[in-house]
Amino acid sequence: MTVNGRNRRRALVVGGSTGIGRGVADAWADAGLDVMVLSRSAPTGAGADRLRWLATDLTDPAQVTGSLTAAVEEPLHAVCYSAVHYGGGRALFKDCDETEWRRQIDVNLHGLWLTLARTQPILRSAETPGVFLGISSEVVYNAGPGRSGYAASKAAAAALLDSVAQEETAEASDTEALRIVQALPAGMVDTPGIRRRRPQGFDYSTYMEPASFAPLARELAATAGAGLHGAHLVVDDTGVWYPAREKMPRSQSRRISSGTAS
Q1: Short-list 7, 154, 150, CA closest to 91
Q2: N or C terminus of the chain: which is more exposed, having fewer CB within 10 Å?
Q3: Where are the beta strands (DSSP E) in 118-238?
Q4: Distance of alpha carbon 122 from its chain centroid, rounded?
Q5: Neighbours of 129 (CB within 10 A)
């Protein structure tokens, strides 16, 4: 695809219709990238007309394969995996069922694996290094009660990206062929998924906005993640980011009892 006679860079955001993924998709579109979104629901609201969309349910293997095949038909320069399934609400392990667990694995982990498997060769074939951004969570560092499936699947996802990042470093000569970055919010983020779990009239004034990820997304678009390969970054509500090793993210775990959900 060309714009004003010049090649236009392409990006893919899995889980980009709402939440942090949408914040990344909008920022990449602002930076001039041709952005495709894979998600169950179509992007809506301001800026949605700039995003291409393929309906994709990450629990449907055939649909995921078809969407990713279409997404990699042209060169890719940036990919973000932001799809997430929290679950119906926080619940003790004894109150969770296998269906919920399998959905968390399908969305939080297996969908990431499929996306990496399909996009890694395309990102590595670009003339300049491609960048893969994985949206992580504080639960990777702060496993707590009521979040066993979410914590396990997100920790596994983080380990998967760490392992692939080390493989990219080992294979590179002077620079990484593909740069992998993980980023997580410093606090709770106001998203439709979170709002479905909160009571009517809940006060979201202390919550972050998805747009807080825009500065980092723009940096990755401009530099392809130069200097950030393998990093785990915490993004605060002002859009400032810092390495998680310098300041561990605040735990959002708390005590719960049987039947508690949020």
Answers
A1: 150
A2: N
A3: 130-135, 178-185, 232-235
A4: 19
A5: 20
pTM score, whole prediction: 0.92
Cα dist. 103→46, 49, 83, 85, 232 in Å? 30, 30, 12, 7, 25
Superfamily of domain 2-243: NAD(P)-binding Rossmann-like Domain (3.40.50.720)
Tell me how crowded residue 184 is: count the other CB atoms within 10 A of its CB. Answer: 24
Distance between CA atoms of 25 and 7, rounded to whole angstroms? 19
Which of these, 68, 60, 31, 41, lies nearest to 217 by C-alpha position?
Answer: 31
Summarize the confidence of residues 186-212 as an average pLDDT: 89
The encoded tokens of residue 13 equal 């955001």
CA 22, 26, 28, 29 torsion: positive or negative?
positive
pLDDT tier, 248 (very low <50, low <70, confident <90, very high otherwise): confident
